[in-house]
């Protein structure tokens, strides 16, 4: 008999959800999935009783006592981007928004293990804030300039010979190398500060931290941003990688400092042996790394959810 209940929130067909679901099915846990696309058939009703959140989650013809969930894996997409929202009337849109807000609020206060609470993921909205935490625990960060001053960018480029630029926020951006043609567009940054960093030679390592477990993946690529190298006609290869205990501990400590049960930390191992940290992803798309290396990240995550 399966006595532990785990709630998965998001889009079931998305591989990070589907892979951890398959891994959980091999454990003693009962898996419940909240499919955001079925929001019209879902309700949540909860309140505090003697300081404890109590209530039920209703989906289709089933109901679940919220206190029965041992853990939750939260991988929501914005409800505004759900295909089912297209063409809906304002009443339906408002109901969808209220459902998600109530779920998010419950996730913040439940006694269940939540991977990850939304309030703890906000650090990704500010790369400068993350950089302060990263350096506090012994990891280096690349020489960085955040500015809306074109002259400062040109001086930074001259000092470091080769630089890249990317978003300061948590919104995904494609990392690009600064080249002479970008000089013509520099005046545009007056209206939106941009993050520039020295381009470091070496190879990338993605470190997934789950609790105190660490899984590292080496990335060799011909592109500036390995995620998009193939799109640009380049190549990217991934393989399991062993990192030192010192780097492991630093990654675990950074993730813990950001209050993340599960994180994806992006490192660069330079040609001269230094290790730099770019950022910490609070909702890592781990399935890309698992599919390309065979590393059982989903099983480690499932084990953490039922522990």
Automatic annotation (TrEMBL):
Secretion signal, residue range per the UniProt entry: none
Keyword presence, NADP: no
BP term (GO), one: SOS response
Pfam families recorded: RimK
A single GO cellular-component term on record: cytoplasm
Domain ATP-grasp: 131-306
Record-linked PANTHER family: BETA-CITRYLGLUTAMATE SYNTHASE B-RELATED (PTHR21621:SF0), RIBOSOMAL PROTEIN S6 MODIFICATION PROTEIN (PTHR21621)
Descriptive protein name: RimK-like ATP-grasp domain-containing protein
Organism encoding this protein: Algibacter pectinivorans
């Amino acid at each position: 008999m399966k006595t532990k209940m785990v709630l998965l929130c998001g889009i079931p067909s998305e591989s990070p959800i589907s892979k951890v679901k398959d891994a959980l099915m091999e454990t003693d846990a009962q898996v419940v999935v909240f499919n955001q696309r079925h929001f019209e058939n879902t309700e949540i009703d909860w309140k505090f009783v003697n300081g404890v959140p109590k209530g039920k989650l209703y989906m289709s013809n089933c109901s679940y006592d919220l206190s029965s969930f041992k853990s939750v894996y939260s991988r929501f997409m914005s409800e505004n981007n759900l295909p089912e929202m297209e063409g809906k009337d304002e009443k339906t849109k408002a109901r969808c928004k209220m459902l998600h807000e109530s779920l998010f609020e419950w996730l913040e206060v439940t006694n269940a293990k939540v991977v990850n609470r939304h309030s703890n993921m906000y650090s990704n909205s500010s790369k400068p804030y993350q950089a302060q935490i990263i350096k506090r625990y012994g990891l280096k960060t690349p020489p960085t300039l955040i500015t809306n001053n074109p002259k400062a960018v040109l001086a930074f480029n001259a000092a470091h010979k080769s630089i890249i630029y990317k978003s300061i926020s948590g919104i995904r951006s494609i990392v690009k190398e600064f080249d002479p043609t970008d000089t013509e567009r520099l005046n545009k940054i007056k209206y939106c500060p941009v993050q520039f960093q020295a381009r470091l030679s070496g190879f990338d390592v993605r470190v997934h931290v789950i609790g105190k477990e660490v899984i590292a993946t080496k990335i060799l690529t011909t592109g500036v941003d390995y995620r998009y190298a193939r799109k640009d006609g380049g190549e990217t290869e991934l393989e399991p990688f062993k990192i030192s205990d010192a780097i492991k501990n630093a990654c675990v400590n950074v993730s813990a400092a950001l209050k993340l049960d599960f994180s994806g930390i992006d490192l660069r191992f330079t040609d001269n042996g230094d290790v730099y940290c770019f950022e910490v992803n609070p909702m890592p798309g781990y399935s890309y790394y698992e599919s390309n290396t065979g590393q059982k990240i989903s099983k480690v995550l499932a084990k953490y959810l039922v522990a």
